[in-house]
Amino acid sequence: MKGGWVDLQVNGYAGVDFNSPGLCVEAVKTVVDRLAADGTAAFLPTFVTADPEMVVANIRTVLAARRRYAECERAVLGFFLEGPFISPEPGAVGTHPVEWVHPPDLALFDRFQDAAEGLVKMVNVAAELPGSPDFVRELSARGVAVSLGHQMAADPARLEPCIASGAKAFTHLGNGIPNLIDRHDNIIFAALVEDRASVMFIPDGHHLPDTMLKLYCRAVPLKRLIAVSDSQYPAGMPPGEYEVCGARARLEPNGLLWNPARNCLVGATAPMARMMELLSGRIGLTAGELQAIGHDNPLSLIGEN
Predict the structure, then answer these.
(1) What is the pTM of this model?
(2) For 23-78, what is each residue's pLDDT tens digit?
(3) Using CA atoms, how far apart are residues 108 and 35, in angstroms rounded to an integer?
(4) Rounded Cα distance, 117 and 79, in Å
(5) Distance between CA 14 and CA 183 in Å, rounded?
(6) Which 3 state secondary structure label does DSSP give 249?
(7) 240 Cβ neighbours under 8 A, 6+ residues apart
(8) What is the SS3 assignment for 174?
(9) 160, HSE (Cβ side, Cα atoms, 13 Å)
């Protein structure tokens, strides 16, 4: 890929966590440099469900890095708020700390957006939360891309109010959901046939089996597919124990990063370039198809094309 990949979901990389206190400007520069070396040209620093004070502080630190370094200004396209507007239910909440989950709240969003100086480009929302359709409508009117995920809602009837209100995508489809779901009425099937929203997915070889990757690539029109890394800060680090999202996580030698207590994944550790290699080698996607899902479509979703 000439110029590098575009990744809409980067929680951290190379030992730097966007979701921990004490983030500094030089650490942001480290992420930008390491991602560039590994093939990612531009990305959205991603914030999970956490103490709003910390999120605001870290957003400001990233902005300071953009002002100080031209490389950071080019690479950091904006921000993705993966939390806190998610379901607190087990499975749907994933590894996000439940104590900071919050219902849709424009005042809280405005606090983040003001800190970001208008650069929050994407927000995740759980469709079933009270007030979600109105929240989605307001964010969409402001030009913010809303993605549905970390939710219990699965059937089209429950998703429709948010889709009709302007939701544009589904967050890492197939993940951030309970391990046991209805065989027919589930979020995966609903998203695959929803023509008004893109499907974001994590093709790292751990989050989704090859059968699911093939299904996504066969069932969803190319223009609606978006690969994301969902990388966490242990990416590029040696196997071992780490604290991720306030909980113990284990990085296995094969790159799997998971939370043993909740028996769930905790993001990924492979860069976009590795995921594109997997989609090419195992799924058979062409260079043009990879260009679409790893560069063109992500930019289009956040209005950067």
Answers:
(1) 0.94
(2) 999 999 999 999 999 999 999 999 998 999 999 999 999 999 999 999 999 999 99
(3) 30
(4) 11
(5) 38
(6) strand
(7) 250, 251
(8) coil
(9) 4
Q: What are the tens digits of pLDDT across the range 196-214?
A: 999 999 999 999 999 999 9
Longest CA span, the chain: 51
b/e map of 210-244 (b: 16 or more CB within 10 Å)?
eeebebbbeebeeebbbbbbbbbbbbbeeeeebeb
Measured CA to CA, the distance from residue 266 to residue 271 in angstroms comes to 15
The answer to whether the beta carbons of residues 89 and 152 sit under 8 Å apart is yes
Joined tokens for residue 203: 């093709």
Residue 190: closest CA among 154, 219, 147, 216: 154
Q: Which amino acid is at 226?
A: I
Q: How many CA atoms lie within 13 A of 29 on its CB side?
A: 11
Q: What span, in angstroms and rounded, lies between the C-alpha atoms of 148 and 191?
A: 10
Instruction: List Cα–Cα distances, 78 to 92, 119, 173, 286, in angstroms.
Output: 25, 5, 22, 29
Question: Side chain identity at 110, as an amino acid letter?
Answer: D
Whole-number Å distance between alpha carbons of 303 and 305: 6
Give kind and range of the element (H or E) at residue 160: helix 156-164
| Listed residue (60, 65, 53, 63) closest to 27, CA to CA | 65
Identify the CATH assignment for 5-301 out of 3.40.50.1000, 3.20.20.140, 3.30.420.10, 3.40.50.11030: 3.20.20.140
Q: Considering only CA atoms, which of 195, 92, 79, 100 is closest in space to residue 150?
A: 92
* Among candidate residues 255, 136, 250, the one with its CA nearest the CA of residue 197: 136
Residue 78: φ, ψ to 5°: 155, -155
In sequence order, the 6+-apart residues with CB closer than 8 A to the CB of 32 are: 65, 69, 71, 72, 75, 76
